[in-house]
Amino acid sequence: MSPALRLGPLVFPIELALLVVTGAVGLLAGRLLAGTRAEDAGRVLWRCLLLGLLVARLAFVWQYRDHFLQDPLKILDLRDGGWTGLAGLATALLYGAYAVLRDRAPRRAMLVAMALSTAIWLGGGRLLAPSTQTQPQLAGLSLQQLDGAPAALAAFHGKPTVVNLWASWCPPCRREMPAFEQAQAANPDIHFVFLNQGEAAATVRQYLDEHAPSLTNALLDPAGDASRQMSNRGLPATLFLDAQGRLIDVRVGDLSSATLAQRLESIRAADARN
């Protein structure tokens, strides 16, 4: 399944859609089962949701606090997708249990709503996770170096690899480029590949010379096949592969230095297990 959902010209990360479905199902179930206390149930469930989101964000910020110290306002930039989901889920469930014990919401409605939401969130995350198999569509991409010579992602096997799909006209792509430039310099044990989608070599070279001169491993995907196959044409998109070229994770949307660090830890852990 694609990690992005396309609605007309708009592309949304599938994890955002899962969060919306989880919240909507829980709220609807709680109100329907609460009867005359529907407003009480709805009020408590909204608090569960908001508290869960707040704690999930703050737990992530604390874990990667070094990345936020120089610019604390980045804490408010939720576009980077930085959350610690289990911390948020635990907080939501604890507050829901507290509300039930204090009789601030009907017990049956709350228990069913929380159980449904938890099952959808955890089960959906498992179902939507990319299969850790070698991706034939990646191996078959027709790529080029900036000088026009043919290239292939197989050349980067042997280390965990991060493949960033980007374009110079894409504002989120430009916004995340400094984080990638720093990460490439700081993590020699990981390959970073910057796969431009559909632009001419001269355009790509000029952009990199002006904005990311130290970036290496910039390749061209003239037909934009990678974004079409892997992210429903959503940009930016970042693919995380283990040393054998197996897809571990996909992120659609821009990454901050903190969310990039989080995913680098994940592919190192996955590679260690294999």
Structure notes:
The protein has 274 residues and is α+β, with helices and mostly antiparallel strands. 51% of the residues lie in helices and 15% in strands. It contains nine helices and nine strands. The strands form two sheets. The chain has a seven-stranded mixed sheet with strand order 4-3-7-6-5-8-9. Strands 1-2 form a two-stranded antiparallel ribbon. The radius of gyration is 21 Å and the shape is elongated. It starts with a strand and ends with a helix. The relative contact order is 0.15.
* Order of helix and strand elements from N to C terminus: EEHHHHHEEEHEHEHEEH
Approximately how much helix is present in the residues?
40-55%
Shape: elongated
Which segments are poorly predicted (pLDDT under 50) over 5 or more consecutive residues? none
β-strand amount: 5-15%
Q: Report the sheet with the most strands, covering strand number, pairing sense and barrel closure.
A: 7 strands, mixed
- What is the number of beta strands? 9
Give the radius of gyration: 21 Å
Q: How many H/I helices?
A: 9
Protein traits:
274 residues; alpha+beta; seven-stranded mixed beta sheet; 9 helices; 15% strand
TL;DR of this structure?
The chain is of the alpha+beta class and 274 residues long. The protein has helices at residues 14-34, 38-63, 85-101, 107-128, 136-139, 171-186, 201-211, 225-230, 257-273, and strands at 4-7, 10-13, 143-145, 150-151, 161-166, 191-197, 218-221, 237-241, 247-252.
